[in-house]
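User: structure tokens for this one?
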Amino acid sequence: MSEPIFAVVGHPNKGKSSIVATLAHDDSVAIGRIPGTTIHRRSYPMKVDGEILYTLVDTPGFQRARRVLDWMRNHETTADKHPGVVRAFLQAHRNGEQFIDECELLAPLMDDGAGILYVVDGSVPYGAEYEAEMEILRWSGQPRMALINPIGTADHVDDWQAALGQYFSVVRVFNAVTADFHKRVELLRAFGQLQDSWRLPLQKAVDILQTDRFQRRLQAAHSIANTLGEMLALQLEKTLAPDADSELEKPSLEKKYRGQLELLEQRSRQGIEAIYAHKKIDRIEDGLEFFAEHDLFSEESWRLFGLSRLQLMGLGMVSGAAVGGIIDAAVGGASLLLGALVGGGIGAATTLLAADRLVEIKLLNMPLGNKQLVAGPTRNINFPHIVFGRARLHHTLIARRTHAERGSLKLDEALHSLQRPLQDQERKDLERVFGRLRSSTANVTDRETLAGIISAIFARDDRGEG
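Assistant:
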């Protein structure tokens, strides 16, 4: 059973190539604001693990639809012969210069049996000039669907739906730039309504894409968990001469430490983008400007992504009370649980004092009179929460980003609309694993556990749950 083929056709500059890029998950599709960016038809197979699920054909726009329809009507016999007239038109003009665009557009329909996805811009008024195009497509006899792609801000969707319904069996509103994964899946299911032979292969395509989505989400969670593990374990050393002033050397070592953390975060972002097959995101735009203004160590990052002072006190009291409880047990309860209370208070105070300190730099004495400065690993409770918050926001934007979107990553604008609060249990689960990763006994299992927690959070984000 061969995979379905869909030719994306319509007027110039109405978003045909954007539709192809989004549905093929391919950011190599050329998208331009100037009419005529697409001058030859080109096929884009949608593949998962080497298997072609369906193929989209990007085509030039209609240029002389009225003249083509006039030619066809001059050769008309009866309605059942319309597809033959379209083939006769192709035979007469495919090697000529007069109707190059129309021949490129019609060839996949008549030669390859492609289904029709007719794309219009719902932000511009409907006009009778489109009717020649739609009539030609009806004459082809191929299964056809109309997609209303709202490019601008004006709304003429209702008028388009009324007109398109007379020519197409299925009409959908589909914004190629903003459509999330679930809307893309719904559209594929609608494709299956066009022809019985497509229903099963497209349902198979949906099942494969949903499984692939899960795998990408899990892969992203493992990537972020590994990065967090590396950042929490990071330690840098610098050997000093016996007469060196260690206080003068500390700032440069701390700067290098921060630089290594930022590099790990940068590499993680690149990895997430690759997982979701985004290869051409321009990095010299709002995304990097955001990180430049709100870097890992700024007060704004603590506010946006870190734990509140109340949450930090709670975590500190829990860990401090655990130590105090050991004291109570040692004296047989004679302390009347004062150990737990005092321990909790000390833990909370210590946690707050350390909340704004990223790393301590220690001075160690070495053989032969040398000294060594050691930076890290960080024991800052807030730090992994900030790193994860930033990674979660970036993942949300990338996972939802269509391959037709060629603008910048506007993280600052997305903060309040996309970054939902963590649930209390999620925050506790994260801190429990972060605590183990901060310890000297951290292992691969801890990272696996963290990846599972992150994957569950990402699944909730993907469903749009608050």
